[in-house]
Design a protein that fits this description.
By secondary structure, the protein is of the alpha/beta class. The chain has two domains: 2-169, Rossmann fold (3-Layer(aba) Sandwich), CATH 3.40.50; 182-253, Pantoate--beta-alanine Ligase, Chain: A,domain 2 (2-Layer Sandwich). It contains twelve helices and nine strands. It has helices at 7-13, 30-42, 70-79, 90-93, 106-109, 113-116, 120-135, 147-159, 189-194, 197-206, 212-221, 257-261; strands at residues 2-4, 19-24, 45-50, 84-86, 139-143, 165-169, 224-232, 235-242, 245-252. A six-stranded parallel beta sheet has the order 1-4-3-2-5-6, with helices on both faces. The longest helix is centred in the middle third of the chain and has 16 residues, at 120-135. The chain starts with a strand and ends with a helix. The structure holds pantoate. Pantoate binds at residues 23-25, 53, 56, 124, 127-128, 146, 149.
């Protein structure tokens, strides 16, 4: 695997072969690796980026303690025969300092996580735009766990007329239903046992077994501090803190219809 650090390095690999891109902030887990495998099914060459983007973290969020496991990440990517890793310094992506240059669609971003994380999606759009511009991929793979992010990026690609195709990947889960996330490693063993209840709550709301209010009360009684649990666009979304770890998840209501009919 070739490790690329700069715009010049990237220019050397841009040719006539189709390129699929998986943007990440590192601390790679099976969910990221599933995105890589999807990328490999779309294009001959795959590039992964690892960059912990400062502009998408609020002042009281976990930027400084966000997990950084670069050596391990490199081994995982090499084991999948990834062609390129883009590992830029902040100065490569933000030569003029940490300014926001792209703004998230207001209607999509001023709800759900946007309410609890003001400015987060502007930071995401800023860095993703820069990565697309530098890497110029044909495909970019985004997971549905960050469903709101996925919608906002799709909207940015459309409005900015960026020439690439966004590929959506289903949420990759642990055996007990917990959505895979780099932040799961913050959970204590006790919290790790409680965490899958988030997914259980989503399912019971989607299957009509519990109202939103009942599910909220259950989660609160288990020790979750809820940011939201609500239905929108035919999906149920949840975000909640367990201790200081913020977890998110969502499921499609239509995916539950076969279960409802049983
Ligand atoms: O989903 C993420 O890991 C990040 O928000 C992304 C898309 C890599 C931008 O920093």
């Amino acid at each position: 695997m070739q490790i690329l650090k700069t715009k010049n390095d990237l220019q050397k690999i841009q040719g006539d072969t189709k390129l699929a891109f998986v943007p990440t902030m590192g601390a790679l887990h099976e969910g990221h690796l599933s995105l890589v495998k999807i990328a490999q099914s779309y294009a001959k060459k795959v590039i992964v980026s690892i960059f912990v983007n400062p502009t998408q973290f609020g002042p009281n969020e976990d930027l400084s303690k966000y997990p950084r496991t670069i050596e391990d990440d490199i081994k995982k990517l090499e084991s999948l025969n990834v062609d390129f890793l883009f590992l830029p310094d902040a100065s490569e992506l933000y030569p003029q300092g940490l300014e926001i240059t792209h703004f998230a669609n207001k209607e999509l971003s001023e709800a759900l996580c946007g309410l609890n994380r003001p400015g987060h999606f502007d930071g995401v759009c800023t860095v993703v735009y820069k990565l697309f511009d530098l890497i110029k991929p044909d495909y970019a793979i985004f997971g549905q766990k960050d469903y709101q992010q996925l919608l906002i990026i799709k909207d940015m690609v459309k409005t900015e007329q960026i020439m690439l195709e966004i590929i959506e990947a289903e949420i990759f889960r642990e055996a007990d239903g917990l959505a895979m996330s780099s932040r799961n490693i913050y959970l204590s063993p006790e919290q790790r046992l409680i965490a899958p209840k988030l997914n259980k709550a989503l399912k019971s709301v989607a299957q009509g077994k519990q109202s939103i209010d009942e599910a909220k009360l259950d989660l609160i009684s288990l020790g979750f501090e809820l940011d939201y649990l609500e239905t929108r666009r035919n999906r149920v979304f949840v975000a909640a803190k367990l201790g200081s770890t913020r977890l998110i998840d969502n499921i499609s209501l239509s995916a539950m219809i076969p279960l409802l009919n049983n």
